[in-house]
Amino acid sequence: MMRARLALPVLLAAALAGCGKAEAPKGDAATERSQALERAKEGAFGTQVKALEQAKGLEADLSRKAQEAVEKAEQGTK
């Protein structure tokens, strides 16, 4: 009976100690993000994910062209 009283707190402490441990990440965040994006393209929202990628590409292209136009205009005023 005495052993059961001592064993219970020890088992409880051991169980609680293992609860807070998270698994170590298997890879870096950038790799996981790119893999998740590829999986999303094939999933239920694949067309939306692809459209979002295209929009981001257009945004970058327009930003680059706008910056070039501003630089060209500034050179013309000098």
Q: Tell me, briefly, the overall form.
A: elongated
Number of helices: 3
**Range of helix content:** over 70%
Biggest sheet, in brief?
none
Order of helices and strands: HHH
Protein architecture, described:
The protein has 78 residues and is mainly alpha-helical. The protein is built from 3 helices and no strands. The chain has helices spanning 2-19, 29-42, 46-77. The model has no long low-confidence stretch (mean pLDDT 80).
Element layout with pairings:
Layout: H1 2-19, H2 29-42, H3 46-77
Q: Would you summarize the structure shown here?
A:
The chain is an all-alpha fold and 78 residues long.
What are its keywords?
78 residues, mainly alpha, 3 helices
